[in-house]
Every structure is written in structure tokens, then in C-alpha cells.
């Protein structure tokens, strides 16, 4: 099926940026790997910070991971006193997890550290590309907010 020349093709954009996004992702996490927290652990902690106490099944679903994976990650965080398990008031069998004060502090510290590392990467751009990156930030944030793991799961089934 032919597309008009003025139509923007998402597949073309994906082909052009995917290799660079992968390279930037790897570079960013190598630089930011000063912390002994993994990306998935930080993601779980950020989700708990945003959503408050959550059941492990909810964490797994929102992170797009299996229950055993979420349980293992949370166990590792619990061993470091970054999260704690709390019993449900209405259902004593139910358990939720929440960030501890230390977890909140560590999430903030690592977040600020990684923001500085990313800022250093962005600062290498010339003025014109820096302006473009400023505009692109809103697009990236919109994409991240609207595209969720449920859409990924549905496509793989």
C-alpha cells in the first residue's frame, strides 16, 4: 500500500531511531550504574512512590513482569530495608508492599544522580540540537505516559 509523500511513517521513524535509542539506553545505564540498584528495582520503587502501598500482583501487572520476578525483586529490596511488607487491614491474608523512609531517600538520591548523568549527556549537544531536545522532551514524556505494558502484552499474545 502506497503512502502519500507527506505522510509520516511511524515504522520509518522507529527504524531510524531504534538503534540509537538502544545505544543511548545502554550508555546511560552503564554511566548511571554507580548505584547498586537495578533499573527494574528503581522502576518498582518509583511505582510504589507514585501509587503508594501495592499488592505484589499489582506491581507485577503494572511493571509488565511475572509474579515470581516481582516477588524476587521486592524480596531483594526488602532485604536492604528499602521496602516493607504490610498486612491488609480488611484481609489479613493480603500483603502489600510500601517504600520505607530509607527507600524514599535512596530513590530520590539515585533519581537525582541519574538526572545529572543524563543532563551531562544532553549538555554535549550544540544549541540547535539542544533546542530540538527541549521540544522532544514533551513528546517522549507523552509517549511514556500513554504507552503502557498492557499494550505490549496484548501485542505479544
UniProtKB/TrEMBL annotation:
Transmembrane segments: none annotated. InterPro entries: HTH_MarR-typ (IPR000835), Tscrpt_reg_MarR-type_CS (IPR023187), WH-like_DNA-bd_sf (IPR036388), WH_DNA-bd_sf (IPR036390). SMART domains: HTH_MARR (SM00347). Keywords: DNA-binding, Transcription, Transcription regulation. SUPFAM superfamilies: Winged helix' DNA-binding domain (SSF46785). It holds the Pfam family MarR. Residues 10-145 form the HTH marR-type domain. It comes from the Bacteria. PANTHER family: TRANSCRIPTIONAL REGULATOR, MARR (PTHR42756), TRANSCRIPTIONAL REPRESSOR OF EMRAB OPERON (PTHR42756:SF1). This is MarR family transcriptional regulator. It comes from Corynebacterium breve. The lineage of its organism: Bacteria, Bacillati, Actinomycetota, Actinomycetes, Mycobacteriales.
Amino acid at each position: 500500500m502506497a503512502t502519500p509523500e507527506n505522510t509520516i511513517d511511524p515504522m520509518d521513524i522507529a527504524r531510524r531511531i531504534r538503534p540509537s535509542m538502544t545505544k543511548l539506553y545502554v550508555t546511560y545505564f552503564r554511566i548511571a550504574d554507580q548505584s547498586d540498584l537495578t533499573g527494574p528495582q528503581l522502576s518498582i520503587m518509583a511505582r510504589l512512590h507514585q501509587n503508594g502501598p501495592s499488592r505484589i500482583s499489582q506491581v507485577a501487572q503494572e511493571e509488565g513482569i511475572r509474579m515470581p520476578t516481582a516477588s524476587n525483586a521486592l524480596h531483594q529490596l526488602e532485604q536492604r530495608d528499602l521496602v516493607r511488607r504490610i498486612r491488609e487491614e480488611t484481609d489479613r491474608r493480603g500483603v502489600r508492599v510500601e517504600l520505607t523512609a530509607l527507600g524514599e531517600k535512596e530513590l530520590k538520591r539515585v533519581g537525582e544522580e541519574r538526572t545529572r548523568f543524563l543532563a551531562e549527556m544532553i549538555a554535549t549537544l550544540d544549541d540547535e540540537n539542544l533546542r530540538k531536545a527541549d521540544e522532544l522532551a514533551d513528546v517522549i514524556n507523552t509517549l511514556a505516559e500513554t504507552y503502557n505494558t498492557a499494550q505490549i502484552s496484548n501485542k505479544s499474545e
